[in-house]
Amino acid sequence: MHDKLLQYISSEFNFNSDEIETVKKYFEPVSYSKNTILEEAGQVPQYLYYIVSGYLRLFYMDENGNEVTTHINCPPGFFTSYTHFINQTRSEDCVECITDCSLLRITKEHLDQLVIKSQGMKDFSIAVFQQSIAYNENRSKELSVLNAEQRYLKLIENYPEIIQNVPIQYIASFLGMKPESLSRIRKKIIN
């Protein structure tokens, strides 16, 4: 499993053999079944996850008890409630496996040690967090300026595999609409 992570990080940054061994030492391979909650709301996120295979979502419960999906990720990539993981503060979000998942996980303490020991990992970590910030800013903008159909079309253009792997209710919530609205949009597009 470490090979996929090492390919991912070494595509942009160079790592020597000691750094590679340290990455392997600190990233723990784990597998979880569909619908497993990895991180509970009200807790400090324990891990940063690298997705080898499978789909994860970040969600919270609104004031009416409805689940609101704020992020869906697919391989490859990193996943957690970033701000709370970095600051080690309580998150109101849950991290859940949408499908069976193979992951590599690292604690904040081990990530900090890895960043101290490896300039390549420090540079890579900064790049990952910058990408996360840019993604979230772009997502906020899309939610405010694109209509529901435009958001759906953009999602299937950029991440077509999500449609086959993620239940419609999670996709609808992620796009800021009800499942019935998404069903109408999908029917309209098909026709």
Number of domains: 2
* Main beta-sheet annotation: 4 strands, antiparallel
* Whole-angstrom Rg: 17 Å
Average pLDDT number: 93
Number of strands: 8
What is the chain-wise order of helices and strands? HHEEEEEEHEEHHHHHH
Number of helices: 9
Helix vs. strand class: alpha+beta
As residue ranges, the low-confidence spans are none
The CATH class name of the largest domain reads: Mainly Beta
Q: Under the CATH scheme, which architecture of the largest domain would be assigned? A: Sandwich
- Percentage of residues in strands: 15-25%
The CATH topology of the largest domain turns out to be Jelly Rolls
Distance between the termini: 42 Å
- The CATH homologous superfamily of the largest domain corresponds to Jelly Rolls
Biggest sheet: strands side by side, in what order?
Answer: 1-8-3-6
Helix content: 40-55%
Task: Briefly say what this structure is.
By secondary structure, the protein is of the alpha+beta class. It is 51% helix and 21% strand.
Topology, element by element:
Elements lengths: L1 H9 L6 H10 L1 E5 L4 E3 L7 E7 L2 E6 L5 E7 L4 E2 L2 H6 L6 E4 L3 E7 H10 L1 H27 L2 H11 L1 H6 L2 H7 L4 H12 L1
Antiparallel strand pairs: 1-8, 2-7, 3-6, 3-8, 4-5, 4-7
